[in-house]
Design brief:
Alpha-Beta Plaits, 105 residues, single chain, alpha+beta, 35% helix, four-stranded antiparallel beta sheet
Length: 105
């Protein structure tokens, strides 16, 4: 089952995040992920969470694909760049739904 990863964060260190982003797109794809959308914060339309500068939405083939990206020992040198380069990170996973009926029963 497809899983969507919503990433919201602020850029804390441009060089560190660039070091992550230069390689992460290729590695995400190699582990079964596809970047669906990238966005820069525009405005808060509703809700009360603190805004983040960046939004990335990634579709993963499965939760196992996501976990393989997070836990691959070959990427142990990659993930620290994300940690150092971003702040106020929110990383939420959502199951794919074809419609909302399952939630409305």
């Amino acid at each position: 089952m497809k899983v969507y990863a919503l990433n919201l964060f602020n850029v804390a260190d441009k060089e560190e995040y660039l070091a992550y982003s230069r390689r992460s797109a290729r590695e995400v794809q190699a582990h079964g992920g596809t970047v669906i959308a990238l966005g820069r914060f525009r405005e808060a339309a509703a809700g009360d969470i603190n805004p983040r500068q960046v939004m990335i939405l990634v579709e993963w083939d499965s939760k196992e694909a996501f976990d393989s990206y997070c836990n691959d020992p070959k990427l142990a040198d990659l993930h620290p760049h994300r940690h150092k380069g971003a702040s106020d990170y929110i990383w939420h996973l959502f199951d794919r739904l074809d419609d909302l009926r399952p939630l409305l029963k």
